[in-house]
Structure formats: structure tokens, C-alpha cells
Write a structure and sequence with these properties.
The protein has helices at 2-28, 37-56, 66-89. The protein has 93 residues and is mostly helical.
Length: 93
Amino acid sequence: MLNVVIVLKGLVEFAGLMLLGQGMVWVLSFGRHETNPIYRAMRFLTSPITRFVRRVAPAFVVDRHIPALAFVLLFWIWVALLVTKIRLQMPMG
């Protein structure tokens, strides 16, 4: 069980870093982010996460806020996995 939690935590960290990197490239590309191949690759890798968040988010959430909401959701999933990992590593008794 601990190995599953460690792998899931690593995947969540990777996805979060990809969203963070995508945001940094967006800021540094000065409005030409759609032509940037690095941005497009990161958007492709994070698209399953953003699509999922768009489906579960209420309709009043604007589409441009979905990546930020996805990042916050991944952060809280990461915290839950970290707590689970720590509890699984604690000795019983």
C-alpha cells in the first residue's frame, strides 16, 4: 500500500510541476504562448487534469481559472497523500 501512495504522490507532483511550468511559460512568452512548443507540450500533458476539473467545477467558474483550480486541487491531493504516507510509515503500537 505504501508503494501505491508513493507512486501516486509522485504523479501528483509531476502534474503540479507541469501546471506550474505551463504558467511560467505563459508569463514569459508575452502573449505568444500558443506558438511556443514547450507551452503546447505542457498543455497537452496537463489537458486530462484540466478537463477533469472543468467537469467537476461549477458552471460559474471561468475557463481561464481552471488551470489554477486544478493546481489547488492537486496541492490538496498531494497533502492528503503526504499525510497517508506518513501514517503508513509510522510503527503500529
